[in-house]
């Protein structure tokens, strides 16, 4: 018999995780409209198991889960990859990433991409943790989890619900007349 409390917790975690991803998607739109980055949610690869029904719905299964959640390029042309993780707990464990996800982030980092894990604590505190810090968590923190107070160097703001996960990586946004930006003759920064 299923525990209704655990089912409720699972649903709440799913909703919070979706809200977190929506906040990130909003930030991606903001950065793209500001001509500072082009970052998109990586679609989950899936394989249909049955043909679509009359409503266009079909049964499918995920084929792999190794791709980072978000990929793209930031101002200046550098590749950017990021895994997003949300928790309502007082810590985040390194094991929240699968071995495949760890391997993918390492591969991107090894060829020069900016690779990060973006962590949300209760949708109120956000941290952009550089891949080497996450990867070497045991050596840096003495254990395989971290708490928000240990991540202050990686905190990013979220004014108006837009997580500024590129703070410090792209030039600050300059306010310029819309018609000049549309002509494409300006460079941010």
Layout of strands and helices, then pairs:
Blueprint: H1 4-33, E1 37-41, E2 46-48, E3 60-62, E4 70-74, E5 78-87, E6 92-93, H2 99-110, E7 114-121, E8 125-130, H3 131-135, H4 137-141, E9 145-146, E10 155-156, H5 178-183
Parallel strand pairs: 5-7
Antiparallel strand pairs: 1-4, 2-3, 4-5, 6-9, 7-8, 8-10
InterPro entries: Resolv_RecU, Restrct_endonuc-II-like, tRNA_endonuc-like_dom_sf
Organism: Anaerotruncus colihominis
Protein name: Holliday junction resolvase RecU
Q: Could you spell the SSE succession in H and E letters?
A: HEEEEEEHEEHHEEH
- Biggest β-sheet description: 6 strands, mixed
Please state roughly what percent of the residues sit in beta strands, choosing from under 5%, 5-15%, 15-25%, 25-35%, 35-45% or over 45%: 15-25%
Strand order of the largest sheet: 1-4-5-7-8-10
- N-C termini distance: 58 Å
CATH 2nd-level architecture? 3-Layer(aba) Sandwich
Question: How many distinct helices?
Answer: 5
Write down the CATH class: Alpha Beta
Structural class designation: alpha+beta
Overall mean confidence score, pLDDT: 88
| Overall number of structural domains | 1
> In which range does the helix fraction lie?
25-40%
- pLDDT below 50 for ≥5 consecutive residues: which ranges? 177-183
CATH topology call = Trna Endonuclease, Chain: A, domain 1
Number of strands: 10
What characteristic shape results from the CA principal axes?
Answer: globular
The radius of gyration computed from the alpha-carbon positions, rounded to a whole number of angstroms, is 19 Å
